[in-house]
Amino acid sequence: MAAGAELTTGRPGRLAANWRGLNGPARLAGVDLARGLAVIGMLAAHLLVTDDLVWTDPATWTGIVDGRSSILFATLAGISIGLLTGGRAPVRGERLARAATGLAVRALIIWVLGILLIATGVPVYVILPAYAILFLLVLPLLTLRPVVLFGIAVGLGLVTPWVYAAIMTLPVWRTPGVEDASLLIGWQYPFVVWSTFIVAGLGVGRLDLRSGSVQTALVLFGAGVAAIAYGLAPPEGRRDAAASASLVDAVWTAEPHSSGVLEVFGSGGFALAVVGLCLLVCRPWWRGGVVGPLGWAALPLRALGSMPLTAYAGQILAWAIAATILLGSPSDLSGFRALHPFGSFVFWSIVGCTAWALLMGRGPLEAVVAAAVRRTASRIVR
Fold first, then answer.
1. What is the DSSP-derived secondary structure letter of residue 50?
2. CB–CB of 150/214 below 8 Å?
3. 60-114, pLDDT tens digit by residue?
4. At residue 377, does pLDDT exceed 90?
5. Quick one: which of 29, 253, 346, 354 has the most CB atoms within 10 Å?
6. How far apart (Å, rounded) are the C-alpha atoms in residues 355 and 175?
7. CB–CB of 95/377 below 8 Å?
8. 238: Cβ–Cβ under 8 A, 6 or more apart, which residues?
9. 208 vs 25, 66, 86, 104, 217, CA distance in Å?
10. For residues 16 and 361, what is the distance between their CA atoms, to the nearest angstrom?
11. Is 291 left (phi over 0), alpha (psi -120 to 50) or beta?
């Protein structure tokens, strides 16, 4: 009887705690919303056949997910690192050492998870190995001010596309097996260039993201940079550039996954604008509120965004299982897309993550990674 009474009273307490964890003042609902949109965008990029985006043609707007979703994902990773390491007041001393160690451990775990997802045979380029390297690259920058971080991001955005293009001209890429080996470092999301996005995200994470003026500035600045970059793009895409194309042709492009200068600033600006817009959408309309009406309406998307690692890994695992059962192989991309799985994947991802967030709390992979990081960091840094 006593045990039953304890269970009865404990369950509402757990639900209330999970509700506060998802909707309380300590959580930035807009960041969760942006993550949720990034997850759905990556699902769309994987599962839908999209057209080349033409901004003036609404029929092609599904192409907005191509390349931009993963760049939004990477920018949000930088923002998350900024928030985890103190936000506006970066951690120092022993706390900094513990945070840096924790990020290094997190990078190792994410890299291993990425390799396991690649081993499923699902025909997508898994972003997690690139994430792991980006986490390590950003470690020396954790104490820098936002203006310095943004300056570094701009410099990287201007220089690294040229470095990447030069690397891709090296004869080593004609060696058999090199492209397969490149999966181990996520080279399809080249960390040389993508360091721009995680550094920019870290700078955003050092701002006062609850300030309406900061949120508005992110929208206006990001949209402005994106408009200029896309406006400067050549009129005809070069997605499949000829071998004879010049280095300038390879770099001066906004094509998705090109790692060109105009893609870096166009899609990077787009990511900043999306983050700012999501923060504004979730902004409370009254003093003392934690989430506005639009933010409450977006609760299921925010729940999805509260566990992006679980959602990302879960969709690849579900894909591998479903494709093996239905098609006999997880590697048949066109066959799986022909089953039109996108709607089902989105529905069950949102339902599953919302139920888990309310009933259990933190996402399962997020909880496992956090526990491993906490234990390992506490042993290394004493």
1. P
2. no
3. 888 899 999 999 999 999 999 999 999 999 999 888 999 999 999 999 999 999 9
4. no
5. 29
6. 48
7. no
8. 245, 249, 250, 253, 255, 258
9. 14, 30, 11, 26, 11
10. 10
11. beta
